[in-house]
Specification:
Strand content: over 45%
Order of helices and strands: EEEEEEEEEHEE
Shape: globular
Helix content: under 10%
Number of strands: 11
Distance between the termini: 40 Å
Largest sheet: 7 strands, mixed
Length: 122
């Protein structure tokens, strides 16, 4: 069993940056593809980005491409989501998820974190 813990969320102003972290307890993340999803109030959960074991990354909505970067540090056993030039529409609960492959993470992750709130004020 993998327990995922997100951190790094908060309240920021438009144009600011945040870095979210996803760490695991119970088992290492090194053998898993890891992704980020977000869910805004009244909206469905949305795929944001994912990274494979060998650091192949993929991104979801066009609105985050060029502004968000996913990365992983195997020494720290942590996956990051660097979010730059934040906009009010980025406001959501951000979830970390893990699975055996990128496809699994994107479509049906095996594990989910509890989420971290990101609020961007205008």
């Amino acid at each position: 069993q993998v327990q995922l813990v997100e951190s790094g969320g908060g309240l920021v102003q438009a144009g600011d940056s945040l870095r979210l972290s996803c760490a695991a307890s119970g088992r290492t993340l090194r053998g898993y593809a890891v992704g980020w999803f977000r869910q805004a109030p009244g909206k469905e959960r949305e795929f944001v980005a994912a990274i494979s074991v060998i650091r192949i990354s993929t991104y979801g909505a066009d609105s985050v491409k060029g502004r968000f970067t996913i990365s992983r540090d195997n020494n720290k056993d942590t996956v990051y989501l660097q979010m730059n030039s934040l906009k009010p529409e980025d406001t959501a609960v951000y979830y970390c998820a893990a699975g055996s492959t990128l496809a699994v993470v994107k479509d049906r992750p095996d594990y989910w974190g509890q989420g971290t709130q990101v609020t961007v004020s205008s």
